[in-house]
Amino acid sequence: xxxxxxxxxxxxxxxxxxxxxxxxxxxxxxxxxxxxxxxxxxxxxxxxxxxxxxxxxxxxxxxxxxxxxxxxxxxxxxxxxxxxxxxxxxxxxxxxxxxxxxxxxxxxxxxxxxxxxxxxxxxxxxxxxxxxxxxxxxxxxxxxxxxxxxxxxxxxxxxxxxxxxxxxxxxxxxxxxxxxxxxxxxxxxxxxxxxxxxxxxxxxxxxxxxxxxxxxxxxxxxxxxxxxxxxxxxxxxxxxxxxxxxxxxxxxxxxxxxxxxxxxxxxxxxxxxxxxxxxxxxxxxxxxx
Length: 289
Known about the structure:
Blueprint: E1 4-8, H1 16-20, E2 35-39, E3 49-54, H2 58-63, H3 67-76, E4 82-86, H4 89-92, E5 93-98, E6 108-111, H5 115-125, E7 130-132, H6 140-149, E8 153-156, E9 178-181, H7 190-197, H8 200-210, H9 217-226, E10 232-234, H10 237-240, H11 272-282
Parallel strand pairs: 1-4, 4-7, 8-9, 9-10
Antiparallel strand pairs: 2-3, 2-5, 5-6
């Protein structure tokens, strides 16, 4: 058993990091952010997401070989086996929003640290077990950086079944250097997605793609994930047992009601382990002992 940890690219304004190292962030004389982090409008939010995190002074960080990042990753890898870099695209370019804005609409793209940061990390820590969370508005520079670094990216099956035939997440278009998810903590559960979020066109396409009625849509997507060429596949517990939208983990850009889901004894459904094993065995994903 291994633990996949998560490192968000940015830290909070009231964090120990900003308090201890204000010189590494874009702050005014009173240590208030002049610009903050966010993302432009996308699938999750029409006004974008205004995260409000202080932004790094990347030039200042580069001056000492990104030592703060080296320390951060070193400490993280003492507690987990693999690190998912949240908002990986920010290392290529990131969305900068003036601190007095109410939404993320009026932001601008700024260049991130790119490969020099990862060179510094590798020089200090050796080869790192990283996964790039490369979702959202992904531009060619982000893809190029991930490929150059040789990091696996992510694919989400909830995003696969749009009417656009160029969908990069449709299972037949997936690549080996990806981690495929039915959905992540930022998505609805698969049952919730199919009932509440998917359009009629998406529902029709997924039914035809899986040659099913959609009655067990969670298992249809589990089979698609496990049968893909992606080297790794992840299935949330909610999808294994077919839980609905009330068991969603997180809704981006919504401030309340998140991260309250807990697995209770009734959710440990008898027979699920055997059924899941049959699927992973059929697609050659049983790890040798």
